[in-house]
Design goal:
The protein has about 475 residues and is α+β, with helices and mostly antiparallel strands. The protein is built from 10 helices and 12 strands. The model is unreliable at about 450-464 (pLDDT under 50).
């Protein structure tokens, strides 16, 4: 933003300077040229007046020669011609006696007003001695164009200096203005990013920048404070619910175990059924708490090696799959593939997906986990050759208790979807070719190459 503001002000200032300084310099140059020409013509007329007295009135040439000497002292070259274009008198230099001077004399004697030329850095001017229509002679004065060129160069030099000073001042002011505006916005952006990464105590600076930016920072701080209060309140509720529900369930289960130890056959069967319901209720409570924690998660992304996590989770679940007569394998994958995910999230996702697949696939089936890069994403697939899902079940599978075909709590895929989404990824369900279900996860790649990270697994809730 700072560069855009600076360049915008520089471009606008440059246009204003060009539109203002260049025409002014051109106008001053034109006026200087006219003034120089008028001064030259005035000096020529002075000599012409003295020459007229000599040529028309036949007075002594002393006054004429005096004016010629004065012109020579001023650095001019002058020559006086009679009515027949014959040279009468001149200064020592011969710049006013060339072919161009004779052409000017012929034009003046013919009653014309020829355009004075510039020759080899000298400006020529011609004036009639006497009446314009019937002159008694003509005077040609050659003056160096050096002083005029110096003045013109000074005009353009000062104009360029003024323009450069204006641009330099604009650079300083625009940089300060851009920093004054953009620095608080950059700070606010960094604060918003840290808040989004889970730093709920992050606050923005409200003492810098324009009033609008300060108001925005104050609004952000209010929003952050309310978010922090809400999240902490929800976390407190979850902790309370976890304690208030798990404790009586554990106590009830212990009492049922004691009763079942000395119960008769019929009563023991009823107590066993009650124990199963207590266990199911415990799993349901754990699942709800896990979903609540996932929904409130604000992870700080870290670099997670996909191949290492996949290998670790496959190795951890292989004994369970072997007990059920299933084949669990890690399929093809790109080594070194790294994603940006919260600590433990990828492990929890894979645990839920593998647990669901192991519970759904009949004996003799297989479950495969593979991964590869897909553009700026890493794509993980958990494929099984089980019974699969109907289209209606797939449409609601990621909702809590949304899958009517689920044999367990129906919360595992909801946790998977939430954890994938909160890490900037997506999750979807596809049919496995030949039968079965494939869960496809797309997670963002870690932007910094060469950085590595890891995470530990979190508690898992199975959907059985």
């Amino acid at each position: 933003m700072s560069r855009r503001v600076t360049w915008t002000l520089l471009v606008l200032t440059s246009l204003l300077l060009v539109l203002a300084v260049v025409p002014l310099a051109a106008m001053m140059t034109a006026r200087e040229r006219v003034a120089y020409r008028d001064s030259q013509r005035a000096a020529t007329r002075v000599i012409a007046a003295a020459a007229e007295e000599h040529l028309s009135d036949h007075k002594p040439a002393a006054a004429m020669r005096q004016e010629l000497r004065a012109a020579a002292r001023a650095g001019d070259c002058a020559a006086v011609y009679d009515a027949s274009a014959r040279l009468v008198a001149s200064t020592p230099c011969g710049a006013a006696q060339g072919e161009e001077a004779l052409e000017l004399v012929a034009g003046v004697l013919a009653g014309h007003e020829p355009e004075p030329p510039e020759n080899e850095g000298r400006l020529l001017a011609a004036e009639p001695a006497g009446e314009v229509r019937r002159p008694a002679g003509a005077v040609v004065l050659a003056r160096s164009a050096g002083p005029l060129d110096a003045r013109v160069a000074a005009i353009w030099g000062w104009s360029a200096a003024i323009g450069a000073a204006g641009l330099a001042a604009t650079v300083v002011l625009s940089v300060r203005l851009a920093r004054w505006v953009s620095r608080p916005l950059s700070t606010l952006d960094a604060s918003a990013r840290r808040l989004g990464e889970g730093a709920l105590d992050e606050r923005a600076d409200v003492a810098a920048g324009p009033p609008e930016v300060r108001r925005l920072a104050a609004t952000f701080n209010t929003m952050a404070a309310r978010t922090e209060a809400l999240v902490h309140g929800h976390r407190a509720v979850i902790a309370d619910v976890s304690h208030q529900l798990r404790t009586p369930l554990a106590a009830l289960r212990l009492r049922l175990d004691v009763l079942a130890a000395g119960a008769e056959t019929g009563t023991a069967a009823e107590l066993a059924a009650a124990q199963e319901e207590i266990a199911r209720l415990s799993r349901l409570v754990d699942g709800l708490l896990a979903v609540a924690r996932a929904e409130q998660a604000t992870p700080r992304p870290s670099a997670v090696r996909v191949d290492e996590v996949v290998a670790e989770r496959v190795a951890a679940w292989t004994p369970v799959a072997g007990e059920r007569g299933l084949r669990l394998t890690a399929g093809s994958g790109e080594p070194g593939l790294t994603v940006a995910a919260g600590a433990g999230h990828l492990e929890q996702i894979l645990d839920n997906l593998i647990a669901n697949a192991v519970d759904a696939v009949p004996e003799g089936g297989s479950v495969t986990v593979d991964h590869r890069a897909a553009g700026d994403r890493a794509r993980l697939r958990v494929r099984d050759d089980g019974p699969g899902m109907s289209e209606r079940a797939k449409a609601v599978a990621f909702r809590r208790f949304g899958n009517p075909e689920a044999r367990g709590t129906g919360l595992g895929l909801a946790i998977v979807h939430r954890l994938a989404t909160v890490n900037g990824g997506t999750a979807r369900l596809e049919d496995t070719p030949g039968g079965g279900l494939t869960v496809v996860l797309d997670l963002p790649l870690w932007p910094a190459a060469g950085r590595s990270g890891g995470s530990r697994s979190s508690p898992v809730v199975k959907e059985t």
